[in-house]
Design brief:
The structure holds two protein chains of two kinds. By secondary structure, chain A is of the alpha/beta class. Chain A has 14 helices and 16 strands. In chain A, α1 packs parallel to α7 and α3 runs parallel beside α5. Helix content of chain B is 39%, strand content 15%. Chain B has an eight-stranded mixed β-sheet with strand order 2-1-3-4-6-5-8-7, with helices on both faces. Chain B starts with a helix and ends with a helix. Classes of the chains: A alpha/beta, B alpha/beta. Chains A and B meet through α3, α5 and β10 of A and β2, α4, α6 and α11 of B.
Chain lengths: 391, 282
């Protein structure tokens, strides 16, 4: 095991290489640029290729091409670039091309603040492209070390489910420096719970079987199998067709290969002080969860019955964590509230679900403590911030 | 021509998709045959070529016609997909892309230019049906000036990429393409020879192949859907490079032949990766 004091971007690079990534195509954007830079340094050393594209749309399309040709591929960006993935993301979902997409969130809308963390793409990672009729998987680590593990896992899932997987981070996560351990051999990989699935190729002729089965190898070019893939609705052989019944079979597979195999991703969450049915559950993901965890520890030491639920698997949304009627506080790095809407939907109708948002900066422990106390005492939460007070 | 169409179909195409669902009188099949004949004359087999297409008439009508492996990209993006694929595929595999004029010279022009810049080893055949025809017949960026289309009912008056001294070929040459040619569907064997050169180029090749669309372009601009009429009209406005007349729209022939003058993308990439691995530097 090698230890480093390095950034999340470093951990993602090493994780990707461990997961088998040998093709990275990106476009410079703060705060994902350092990841592209690290890839350009590291990939050639392990017989991999780094290419820089003319825009993010092209970058993910190049990854699609490399994936079709048998290389495990990855791209990374931030919100303004992630929206340009809309086009290739749909193609990759429809043609079931495995790859990993990293999104390091900053403050929006549009270019917003480039060098500060935000969580404005929670829903965008669920609906990253047009047309619907698909399910997506999003994973959100909260530390550099976890970045490494989650990226390896994302490559594993992308191969077994033959689909793009999104890893959602934020500027603090990818730019922040932390202690990172990188395994040096297979035994150390196993010890850290890192799994790798090899790239296989589909021998045909039914390249798009009407089935929710796992482990159907992806459609690959260059093996002379008569492989076909396109942006149109495919027949099982891959021919383009305009028939509702064929479309239904295809959409069913895209949706249910994910929904019917939750064992692959449902264990990705973290619970703290959740065993005694707490009176208040604080829900978060990514970097703010680290402040939340500290605040919940503080609350417990002061006798408040508060628990912390951190989601790592964001999509498909893990409804089962919210079956209990209690109070929920959802902490996010945005002012509009995104995750809170899913919690409201998943929680019992008479559960109390509140939102604490901030953006560009992390919530503070005093703010969190004050909110916990008010919620537990059934006091109303005040709107914070000068703009809101002025209204 | 040297080959019967049926023999070419047996060797290279899927009978499920040939004949295609193109409109009566569509010229796409003429160009498609030119490309297949060039492949046949080069002695290439289905395993040697990965066939990519885009969308619109040219993309959809040629997708899955090739007996070997094939893919279709979304509108304008196939040049980016093909660059990634080029790097991943073994060097002996060739990539041929059949795309439309809107795809190449409109929505995909940025990606096309960067494919030329990087001298990516594939051949782009631009099947130019004089505009956006699968959406009903709107003008594109190489639609002849003055043409009446569904979106230019008074005649197409915008500057475009193929008139007034401008030519998309100049852009692509400046961007670094190593083989460029233009042939209309009336050019016959001359087009086959150019496509052979394009496919044999170890680098970025593009052949611009305008063909007649009687259904939309003919009916709108020429007043009827007669396939022979629009072919004659195209022939009248076509002349070999250097022999242009005042009414020539399409000057045909080889525009640029710099085959072998620059390293091809994937060769450059893998040679560089190899050097870095061995020595730690370039």
């Amino acid at each position: 095991m090698k230890r480093f004091l390095e950034t999340g971007n470093f951990a993602i690079t090493e994780g990707a290489i461990l997961g088998g990534c040998r093709f990275f195509c990106g476009y410079p954007i703060t705060p994902a640029t350092e990841l592209a830079e690290a890839m350009s340094l590291r990939l050639p050393q392990v017989n991999g290729v780094y290419l820089q594209a003319e825009d993010e749309c092209a970058a993910m399309h190049l990854c699609i091409g490399a994936s079709l040709g048998g290389m495990k591929s990855m791209t990374a960006t931030s919100g303004p670039g992630f929206i340009l993935y809309a086009d290739p993301y749909g193609w990759a979902l429809g043609c079931e091309a495995p790859m990993v997409v990293m999104n390091s969130g900053r403050v929006g809308p549009v270019s917003g603040i480039t060098g500060a963390p935000g969580q404005g793409e929670f829903y965008l990672t669920r609906y990253p492209t047009q047309g619907g009729n698909f399910e997506t998987i999003t994973l959100a680590p909260n530390s550099a070390q976890e970045c490494l593990k989650i990226i390896v896992e994302a490559f594993y899932l992308s191969e077994r489910l033959r689909m793009p997987i999104t890893v959602l981070g934020d500027q603090l996560l990818t730019d922040g420096m932390e202690d990172i351990s990188v395994p040096e051999n297979d035994d150390e990989m196993k010890e850290m719970g890192l799994r790798v699935w090899p790239r296989l190729y589909h021998k045909g002729p039914d390249f798009y079987p009407a089935s929710d089965a796992l482990d159907i190898p992806p459609v690959q070019m260059g093996y002379d199998t008569g492989a076909l893939c396109s942006d149109w609705t495919p027949t099982v052989e891959g021919y383009d067709i305009e028939e509702v019944e064929e479309h239904h079979k295809h959409a069913y597979r895209l949706i249910y290969k994910v929904r019917n195999n939750p064992q692959l991703y449902e264990d990705f969450y973290e619970k703290k002080y959740m065993d005694d049915d707490p009176d208040l559950v604080v829900v978060s993901y990514g970097t703010p969860s680290r402040v939340v965890n500290t605040a919940v520890e503080r609350a417990r030491s002061e006798g408040l019955k508060v628990g912390a639920l951190r989601l790592i698997n964001l999509w498909p949304f893990p409804d089962r964590h919210f079956s209990r009627k209690t109070k929920y506080l959802v902490v996010e790095l945005n002012w509009d509230g995104q995750l809170v809407r899913e919690v409201q939907r998943a929680a019992p109708k008479d559960a109390e679900v509140k939102f604490l948002g901030c953006c560009g900066d992390l919530p503070t422990i005093p703010d969190l403590m004050e909110t916990f106390t008010k919620m537990l005492k059934n006091q109303p939460l005040e709107r914070k911030g000068w703009v809101l007070e002025a209204w | 021509m040297q080959y019967q169409s049926s023999a070419l179909v047996d060797d290279y195409l899927r009978t499920r998709k040939i004949p295609s669902t193109a409109c009566s009188g569509c010229g796409l099949g003429i160009n498609h045959k030119v490309v297949i004949q060039a492949i046949s004359e080069l002695g290439l087999k289905t395993k040697d070529i990965i066939w990519g297409t885009a969308i619109g008439c040219a993309g959809r009508q040629t997708f899955a016609t090739w007996k070997g492996d094939g893919f279709a990209g979304t509108h304008g993006r196939v040049y980016a997909i093909a660059r990634g694929l080029r790097v991943a595929l073994p060097r002996d595999k060739k990539i041929v892309l059949t795309v439309g004029d809107g795809d190449a010279f409109g929505i995909g022009l940025l990606h096309l230019i960067h494919a030329a810049r990087s001298n990516a080893g594939f051949t782009v055949i631009v099947m130019d049906n004089l505009g956006y025809q699968s959406t009903g017949g709107q003008f594109g960026f190489t639609t002849p000036q003055g043409a009446k289309t569904d979106s230019s009912p008074y005649g197409m008056f915008e500057h475009n990429l193929m008139s007034e001294g401008m030519d998309v070929m100049h852009i692509l040459k400046g961007a670094g393409a190593t083989f460029l040619a233009r042939h209309t569907a009336t050019d016959g064997l001359a087009a086959v020879e150019s496509v052979k050169k394009a496919i044999s180029n170890n680098g970025f090749s593009l052949v611009h192949m305008p063909y007649p669309c009687p259904t939309n372009f003919g009916s709108r601009h020429l007043g009827n859907r007669n396939a022979v009429n629009i072919l004659r009209w195209m022939q009248k406005h076509t002349a070999p490079l250097g022999q242009e007349k005042p009414d020539t729209i399409w000057a045909t022939g080889v525009y640029h032949d710099a085959r072998g003058s620059r390293p091809e993308l994937s060769e450059l990439v893998w040679d560089s990766v190899g050097k870095i691995r061995r020595t730690g530097k370039l």
